């Protein structure tokens, strides 16, 4: 197969299955990075992830564990790019309010399903715009990589968190606690919403001060300094004649509440979905 992605814990391949000719994504997990597959717990995790089916999630179609500790996960292949590239493409579609809202609602529905639609809640643990695939022509989002941290050992799991921090998606409380949670997933969603509405990167490469390195901090300062032009892309308002600035600012406020430094102050996914439906009507 063709290598389409690499990380410290494994490699992604695009491959064509011999019998059916279908194109699949094969995720090879390095033996040194995973938990032992002969444990009851491991089989339970694979079964749980294999049961997950939702229109906004990339399903796990198959799994193979070899006798040398190697593990292979099989997923469908979607060749239409990810949300991070879409936001920064300069494409007219990326500033359309209807697209921004429907993508956010799709991601939120997927997270809500993981948190409340299963027998046991599943924490995504590595949500970022690069892990949201977009299906054309409707730009329907599909989240990948959910629950992957459950298959990795502590060292590899910590590496995922370190990468997440370096890319600007890690909730502040994870510096003290190592366990990802529903609340840390909500924080990552908030960062993605800020990306969608502002077009900015989650990490500010040229911060004016220490407190402007991460996007939520940059936005907090922009609010305090009344820099409205930094909060959202003005082209969004031009994309829809019926759209009011108040509506875009409500979306921005929701994103900022998801990024609250205190996990207990963040809304849960049901509350996020209710707010998004209200924003859709305004």
From TrEMBL:
Ranges where the Protein kinase domain occurs: 1-279
> Which PROSITE patterns does the record match to this protein?
PROTEIN_KINASE_DOM
Looking up Pfam families in the UniProt record yields: PK_Tyr_Ser-Thr
User: Which residue windows are transmembrane per the record?
Assistant: none
GO MF entry, a single one: ATP binding
Q: Per UniProt, which keywords does this protein have?
A: Kinase, Transferase
Gene3D superfamilies, A to Z: Phosphorylase Kinase, domain 1, Transferase(Phosphotransferase) domain 1
From the record, what ranges are coiled-coil?
none
Note the PANTHER family from the entry: LEUCINE-RICH REPEAT RECEPTOR-LIKE PROTEIN KINASE IMK3-RELATED (PTHR48008), PROTEIN KINASE SUPERFAMILY PROTEIN (PTHR48008:SF13)
Q: What is this protein called?
A: Putative kinase-like protein TMKL1
What organism is recorded for this protein? Noccaea caerulescens (Alpine penny-cress)
């Amino acid at each position: 197969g063709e290598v389409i992605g690499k990380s410290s814990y494994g490699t992604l391949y695009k491959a064509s299955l011999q019998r059916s000719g279908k194109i699949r994504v094969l995720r090879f997990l390095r033996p040194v990075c995973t938990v032992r597959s002969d444990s009851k717990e491991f089989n339970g995790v694979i079964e749980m992830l294999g049961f997950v089916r939702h229109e906004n999630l990339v399903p796990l179609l198959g799994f193979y564990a070899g006798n040398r500790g190697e593990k292979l996960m099989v997923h469908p292949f979607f060749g239409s790019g990810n949300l991070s590239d879409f936001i920064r493409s300069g494409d007219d579609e990326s500033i359309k309010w209807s697209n921004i809202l429907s993508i956010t609602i799709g991601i939120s529905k997927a997270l809500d399903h993981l948190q409340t639609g299963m027998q046991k809640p599943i924490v995504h643990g590595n949500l970022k715009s690069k892990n949201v695939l977009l299906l054309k022509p409707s730009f329907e989002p599909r989240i990948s990589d959910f629950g992957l941290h459950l298959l990795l050992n502590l060292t590899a799991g910590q590496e995922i968190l370190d990468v997440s921090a370096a890319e600007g998606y890690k909730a502040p409380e994870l510096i003290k606690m190592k366990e990802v949670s529903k609340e840390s997933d909500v924080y990552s969603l908030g960062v993605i919403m800020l990306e969608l509405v502002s077009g900015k990167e989650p990490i500010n490469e040229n911060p004016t001060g220490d407190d402007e390195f991460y996007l939520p901090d940059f936005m907090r300062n922009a609010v305090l300094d009344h820099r409205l032009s930094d909060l959202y892309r003005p082209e969004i308002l031009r994309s829809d004649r019926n759209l009011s600035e108040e509506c875009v600012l409500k979306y921005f406020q929701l994103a900022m509440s998801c990024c609250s430094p205190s996990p207990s102050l963040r809304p849960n996914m049901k509350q996020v979905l209710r707010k998004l439906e209200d924003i859709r009507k305004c």
